[in-house]
Specification:
With 75 residues, this protein is mainly alpha-helical. It has three helices and two strands, in the order βααβα. The protein is flat and about 45 Å long. The two termini are 22 Å apart.
Length: 75
């Protein structure tokens, strides 16, 4: 699971190559890009970057993935 800030052009420039490498290696993945937010949007100690809505969404998606993957492992 990959979380990207929509406004982070420098980091996001690498997405196509990274995604191709994942595909080439048959890695199951999901990319989320949060429009209108900056790098470190999940850092609540930086009021200029923090985006509460995007941070909560990213966190919930991550927790849901953990629940799903861990449930599979315990079956």
């Amino acid at each position: 699971m990959l979380h990207y800030a929509g406004l982070d052009e420098r980091i996001n420039a690498g997405i196509p190559a990274y995604e191709q490498a994942l595909k080439d290696n048959k890695i199951n993945y999901k990319i989320y890009i949060y429009d209108g937010v900056n790098h470190a949007f999940n850092n609540n100690t930086s009021p200029t970057r923090y985006n509460e809505a995007a941070a909560k969404l990213a966190w919930n998606r991550t927790i849901d993935l953990f629940k799903h993957k861990l449930a599979v492992l315990t079956r």
